Amino acid sequence: MAVGIDQTLAEAGAASTSAHDSSGGSRSWLVLVLMLAAGWGALFSYSAVFLAEDVPLRSAAQRAIPEALPDEAVAFPLPPELMRPAAPAAGRQAEMRAAETPAPVPRLELAGTNAAVAPETGPTQTAAVPSTPPVERPDYIGTWGPNEAACGVRSRRRGYLPATITAEGARAGRVSCSFHDRTRSGSAWVMAADCTDRTRRWTSQVRLRVEGDRLVWSSARGTSSYQRCSRRAG
Fold first, then answer.
1. What ranges does the record give for the region Disordered, renumbered to this chain (predicted)?
2. pTM, rounded to two decimals
3. d(CA 197, CA 220)
C-alpha cells in the first residue's frame, strides 16, 4: 500500500511539474506576443505621424510651383517705366548718361576786359629744366696784324708776324698766351692771360675790344691796335 501511495504521489508531482512547465511557457509566449504587438503599434503610430506631417509639406511644395497661367491672367498693371515701348530705351539711357555727366564750369569774364578766367585746375608739377644761355662766340677770334700790309707773306718775311687769336688763347711767333676767367664787360672781353716766350712766363689782365675790323689789346704793359687780316692776305 505504501508503494501505491508513493506511485500516486510521484504521478501527482510529475503532473504538477508538467502543468507548471506548460503554464510558464504560455506566459513567456504571451509576453513575447505583447512585446511584438507593442513594437508594431509604435511603428504604425510613427508612420502615421510622419505621413500626417509630410502631406502638408508636399502640398505646399506643389503650390509653390506655378502652373502655366492662361494669357488672360498675365494682363496685370506694370510700373510706368516698364510700360514704355522698347524703342525709347536707348533715349532713356542717353538721358541717364547726360544726368551723370557733370556740367562744365562756366568761365568768368572780368568787367571791362575781354579776358576770360579759365576754371581752376589742380596744381601741375613740371620738372624745372635749367635753361642754359647760348654760348656767345667772341668777336676777337681771327688773324690780326699791325696793319693790313703786315698780313701778307712778304711782310712776314720781313719780321711782321700776325697774331692768331682764338677763344682759348693767342699766338704770335714764339709768344703764346692762354686765356681763362673770360667775362663780358660791355663791348669788350676781360680775361686773365698766362703768356710765355719760351724763356719767360708772366700773367696779365687783358682787355680785348673789337671796333669793326680793328682790335684794341689793352693790358698792364700798354695798349696795341691791330687790323683784321683777310683770307686773301694770308
1. 118-143
2. 0.41
3. 17
